[in-house]
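Checklist before submission:
- one chain only
- standard amino acids only
- sequence pasted in full

Submission:
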Amino acid sequence: MKQKYHSNTFDNIPNEKRLRILETAIKEFADLGYDSANINNIANKCGISIGSMYKYFKNKHDLYLTVVEFSVKKLKKVLEDIIIDKKDFLSMIRSIVKAIQVYTRNNVYLTKLYNQMSTENNSELVWKIAYEMENITADLYASYIKIGQDENIVRKDISPRHFAFFLDNLFILLQFSYSCDYYKERMKLYVSEDVFDNDDLMADELVKFISSALFI
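Returned file contents:
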């Protein structure tokens, strides 16, 4: 049975209230990081008592893991919706890029939280939660590349697993570039001040970059 980091009581409260708690906690953890985030502040911002909060979560650590699990599930759902279309590899890549642009703008704090996750002291537990999604993308990208190599479309002098890792790092950095102030300024410096006004051009250029490295 999969481990839960919250009580059954939390599952049974109205969906609107549950989402309000999760979204408030996401913003707190994303802005302040795990160590500086305060469960009392989260409860106050949600308009609920700290006593109620502790009925839902044993401690801040379990609240954090619940929030991480929620964010990973949302990201995973976006990816699964793209995969299920069964597009060719480059079309899938473009769909992922476009999804990153749209999803990140609509879920800025979720993306910031994902950035925070990689630097927290709870990295081992966080990794266990994120592993399922990361494993899907690692296998998916590598399998597409291997199929292309077998069909003599993709260069055979590259390692599918290495390329999958490099590709996913491009996507992660793109997410941060649409959500984190430092990476936003960095992208404007490298590309142009109006880079965020032309998502199609960014998608086109990234797909061309990946294609030039991949195909014969």
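Reviewer check: The CA atoms of residues 75 and 133 lie 8 Å apart.
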